[in-house]
Design a protein that fits this description.
about 850 residues; mainly alpha; two-stranded parallel ribbon; 33 helices; 2 strands; about 70% helix; about 0% strand; flat
């Protein structure tokens, strides 16, 4: 039986269906953007989320109108100041006039009748609103009032009459208003269907497949041109900008009429122009460059839109600070705001003239955009493939331009060959990080007031930049990242090279700010240099942690979701370094660097075990225990649980018994954590004896080893214990000498004196410290820091890096004044553990060292 096919949809039904599809496509793109920026899907708010997005875009367009008014009034203020006036609040001017009148009524003529004015409050207000130093503004204000009375003062209302009077205020307000108007137009044109982050996605006009359907071709073309309006809520609120700007000049009724009569045509014209530019990129650019250009257009629209949020706050200050520079551009014609509002030469306004000018502009832009798009469709569906380079140009792959290391050279050549590299690896992460820093503007408002504020802000920016750059860059490369699996080099070295490149990019940005800090505060140059050295190590660890978040791309092109635990681990110590610099808490800054460095090694150790199974996750095997992550978790539990338990016990014992409470708590925690780790590792095939002894195959061979291995097992133990005891005595004596040196440093001597007085005032402190430091700490700390941590670090790094890393990690858990001797203790214990093959000598060394220090104290 034959079944008649339904009639194809008509013209307007086709348009509605395609615009609805554009809206759905926009929702999917937004979900993809969240994955690229945060590497997680986020919460789907449904209709409520759409309504919230529309509300935000409505507010943004209204805010843009007020930015325009702020720019005009700022220009009017500058024009008034150029005539020798000082713009003040009406209340201040009224107070000055009242004081003068009161003295005149009394018939008194004092030297300065304005001495009781609140100059400082007015100066602070001017500095906060328009920039400058309050002290200098106050001095200028006092001098002007003392010499000329109120003649040099003008109120805000008189100096800044608003948009309705911009024609009578000179050329600067008209220029600034025109700049903001063009700025708003750039936001609309380059917004398109939203910011584009997936730069590897293939792009083609929608009609490549729709033209083959039995639907009106004109409807397909119209829907394509209007798709930005359907997909992006920013266009829905764009007419409100026109309505509010017209409301600054005309009555409310005409302002409301301007929304549909003027705002809608301009919005349609901007959307068509943006779509025409996108079509031109797709048709005329090579496949390698399309993603970059489209991404650059989206970034320009996104950055311009976000700057509107900042404009209302910063425009008055920028105009005041650069008034002389901006004045040089007023010689150019700036008729755009005048034409937009229908202003006449005499300063009056005509609504019909403004509407006619906007209509003419909208018709010209729309016609050109439609003509260009139609011409492009006639030329070919996706043209210009011939310009795509089939191979790199001669001379670009040889030589040593980027160094001899092929992996580093590959990453650097990525920037020169892949047009999207700059957008996806620098512009978008920098934009996101910059606007996030603006959210902390209250905390960073005084960054130039001290070198540590400026340096801390630089570290904070670089840290957030790396955190955004890493996952975003890996996700945006998509399946292209895994082409490296065919290399003769391992994927691990490739990802290490990526981490090096990321840290290099971030370090260049941080270095610029640190150099600026040196310029402002040359007396603190050595401190800023130390911050730079710390950032060098910290940035490498942050970049390596970002690399470990890489996931494979599915056949549909979507990256796998990163487990929450792995993402949380990458954030450990993320802000500690920057906070330490901001607050000048140097022990905290050092802890942040060391903790981040060891965390990166722990994550990389686990990542290396997962790397061969990225495409075979069900066969994935964890690295053999004990791992760095096991050791760090156990140490963190020991420290945190000890602090909590000390607080609980001190409630019972009271303040005088805090030392006893600490000893009891630390003893309980060391026993508990040690037993727990022994049981945990035992379930995974690692016996206690495996931790207490170093593998014989890993012991290096040398003169010491020849003599040592010539001894019997029975003879080795007493010799090793004697060696540990002797080393403990030597290090204990060194610690005493180190303390004697600190006594000659006033700040350190004061800290030591207060500590000794506090200990002397507590009952049983010596016995408690002896029990804790000799009876419990050596066993638990050597088991955790040497038996677990150093063993795992030696497997990860090997050599001196493992010794220094474990010693530094051991030291940061102690008082900053004791870092040097404690670090030497940790390094000595690591070496003696590895050389003797036993943990017992390290325990004895630790016990003797603590006993010598406590006895001498």
């Amino acid at each position: 039986m034959n079944r008649e096919l339904p009639f194809p949809p008509g013209f307007w039904r086709t348009v509605r269906l395609l615009l609805g599809a554009s809206r759905k496509r926009s929702s999917g793109r937004q979900k993809r953007q969240r994955q690229l920026l945060q590497h997680r899907s986020g919460t789907d708010w449904g209709i409520l989320g759409v309504a919230l997005a529309v509300l935000v875009m409505l507010v943004l367009n209204v805010l843009a109108a007020f930015v325009l008014r702020s720019a005009v009034t700022s220009g009017q203020r500058v024009a008034a100041e150029s005539q020798g006036k000082i713009v003040v609040r009406s209340s201040f001017l009224a107070s000055a006039k009242n004081m003068k009148s009161a003295y005149d009524d009394l018939g008194r003529t004092p030297d300065n009748p304005y001495s009781d004015l609140d100059y400082s409050s007015e100066a602070r207000h001017i500095a906060n609103e328009y920039g400058g130093k309050a002290e200098e503004i106050e001095t200028k204000l006092r001098d002007a009032v003392r010499n000329h009375g109120v003649n040099d003062l003008i109120s805000n209302q008189e100096a800044t009459p608003g948009v309705a009077s911009f024609m009578k205020s000179g050329p600067l307000p008209a220029m600034l208003g025109s700049v903001v108007l063009i700025w708003w137009g750039v936001v609309l044109v380059f917004q398109g269907e939203g910011v584009e982050l997936d730069l590897q996605r293939r792009r083609h006009p929608m009609w490549e497949w729709l033209f083959s359907h039995p639907v009106p071709a004109g409807a397909v073309f119209l829907a394509e041109m209007l798709s930005p309006i359907a997909a992006n809520p920013l266009y829905w609120g764009a007419p409100l900008f026109v309505g509010f700007v017209y409301g600054f000049v005309y009555d409310p009724l005409l302002a409301m009429l301007a929304i549909p009569l003027i705002g809608v045509p301009i919005t349609v014209a901007a959307a068509c122009m943006g779509k025409a530019l996108e079509i031109g990129v797709v048709l005329r650019f090579s496949p390698r460059s399309r993603g970059a250009v489209v991404g650059l257009m989206g970034w320009l629209g996104y950055a311009s839109m976000m700057l509107l949020f900042l404009g209302f706050i910063v425009v008055p200050k920028i105009v005041s600070a650069t008034a002389r520079f901006l004045g040089s551009f007023t010689v150019l014609p700036w008729p755009w705001l005048r034409l937009f509002l229908g202003a006449r030469a005499d300063g009056s306004f005509s609504f019909l003239a403004g509407m006619a000018a906007c209509w003419i502009c909208a018709v010209i832009i729309t016609s050109c955009a439609v003509w260009f798009s139609a011409w492009g469709a006639q030329q070919g569906l996706s043209g210009n493939f011939g310009q795509a380079a089939s191979r790199p140009k001669a001379g670009k792959t040889t030589g040593t331009k980027f160094g001899k290391e092929p992996l580093y050279r590959k990453e650097m050549l990525w920037f020169t060959r892949d047009r999207s590299a700059i957008v996806q690896a620098i512009l978008i992460p920098m934009t996101v990080a910059s606007f996030q820093l603006f959210n902390f503007r209250g905390l960073l408002s005084d960054v130039q007031g001290a070198w540590n504020y400026l340096s801390g802000a630089a570290i904070l920016f670089g840290t957030y930049f790396l955190w955004v750059l890493g996952p975003k860059s890996l996700a945006s490369e998509g399946s292209a990242l895994w082409i490296a699996l065919t290399w003769p080099r391992g994927l691990e070295s490739l990802l290490k090279a990526k981490a090096w490149l990321w840290s290099l990019i971030a370090s260049c940005m941080v270095a610029l700010v640190l150099c600026y800090a040196v310029f402002l505060f040359p007396e603190s140059m050595w401190k800023i240099a130390l911050v730079g050295v710390g950032w060098y190590f910290f940035s490498q660890s942050m970049a390596e942690k970002g690399v470990t978040l890489v996931t494979v791309t599915s056949q549909s092109g979507e990256p796998e979701k990163i487990p929450a635990g792995r993402r949380w681990a990458a954030q450990l110590g993320m802000l500690t370094f920057s906070i330490g610099v901001l607050m000048q808490e140097w022990p905290l800054a050092v802890r942040g660097i060391v903790y981040s460095y060891i965390t990166a090694a722990a994550m990389w150790q686990n990542f290396r075990a997962r790397l061969p199974y990225l495409y075979d996750p069900w066969s994935e095997k964890l690295p053999p225990p004990p791992t760095l992550m096991h050791a760090m978790i156990a140490i963190s539990i020991l420290v945190d649980a000890g602090a909590v338990l000390t607080g609980m016990v001190s409630v019972v014992t009271g303040r005088d018994g805090i030392a006893i409470a600490q000893a009891i708590s630390y003893g309980i925690c060391t026993v508990g954590v040690s037993i727990g780790m022994v049981s945990f590792l035992g379930d995974r095939g690692v016996a206690l004896s495996d931790v207490l002894r170093w593998p014989a195959t890993a012991v290096s061979r040398g003169r010491w080893d020849s003599w040592w291995h010539g001894q019997s097992e029975r003879d080795k133990l007493p010799w090793s214990l004697l060696l540990g005891a002797a080393a403990g005595v030597v290090l204990g004596v060194f610690a005493h000498g180190y303390e004697a040196v600190l006594q000659h440093i006033p700040a350190a001597a004061e800290i030591i004196r207060k500590s000794q007085e506090q200990m002397a005032s507590m009952r049983g402190v010596r016995v408690s410290l002896a029990v804790m430091a000799v009876g419990f700490a050596p066993f638990a700390e050597e088991y955790l820091f040497r038996g677990l941590l150093f063993r795992a670090l030696d497997r990860e790094w090997g050599g001196w890096r493992a010794v220094v890393g474990s010693a530094a990690f051991f030291a940061i858990y102690h008082s900053p004044l004791s870092w040097l001797p404690v670090a030497l203790l940790g390094a000595a214990n690591a070496l003696i553990f590895k050389k003797t093959g036993r943990l017992a000598p390290a325990i004895v060394l630790h016990m003797v060292y603590n006993a010598v220090v406590l006895t001498w104290t």
